[in-house]
From TrEMBL:
Organism of provenance: Olleya namhaensis
Domain of life: Bacteria
InterPro entries: START-like_dom_sf (IPR023393)
Protein name per UniProt: Ligand-binding SRPBCC domain-containing protein
Matches recorded under SUPFAM superfamilies: Bet v1-like (SSF55961)
Length: 150
């Protein structure tokens, strides 16, 4: 199962970073390029433990739906969202926040498993891991910009 790990240093307080990261409305804004919108479950505001959201977005030119649920939560240091249904066979996304030296270090750990066996593993290596890394880095830069300018 591929792992993407990204560390982002943000010159802002930990609570701001944590709350932006779990804010449905902020997520919609940060993913505007894929026309992502929340269509079921928690569709606005801050998502918390055992809450779920279904997203609809365009990726690779195809409209897709994905439902994820918050399965672990320790404000303002940690939360996990896991796929319930969607295009992946599975995914788990850990969000880790540490405040150190006047800045927040935000770490994303994103594990995913593609469907379709060997073809899915080939897709991971050819383009999917790079695509997901770019998506996460884009979102993290958007979060960094917003948190540092609050």
């Amino acid at each position: 199962m591929p792992l993407i790990e990204i560390k982002t240093i943000i010159h802002s307080d930990i609570q701001t970073c944590f709350d932006l990261s779990r804010n449905i409305d902020f997520h919609k804004d940060s993913m505007a390029h894929s026309n992502e919108k929340a269509i079921a479950g928690k569709t606005s505001g801050l998502i918390g433990l055992n809450e779920w959201v279904t997203w609809e977005a365009f990726h690779f030119g195809v409209k897709q739906k994905l439902t994820s649920k918050i399965t672990a939560f320790d404000s303002p240091h940690y939360f996990v969202d896991e796929m319930v249904s969607g295009a992946f066979k599975s995914f788990k996304h850990e969000h880790i926040f540490v405040f150190e030296g006047g800045k927040t270090i935000m770490t994303d750990k994103f594990w995913f498993k593609s469907p379709f066996g060997v073809l899915g593993r080939l897709a991971n290596n050819l383009f999917l891991k790079k695509y997901m890394t770019t998506l996460l880095k884009t979102r993290n830069q958007y979060l960094k910009d917003k948190a540092e300018n609050c």
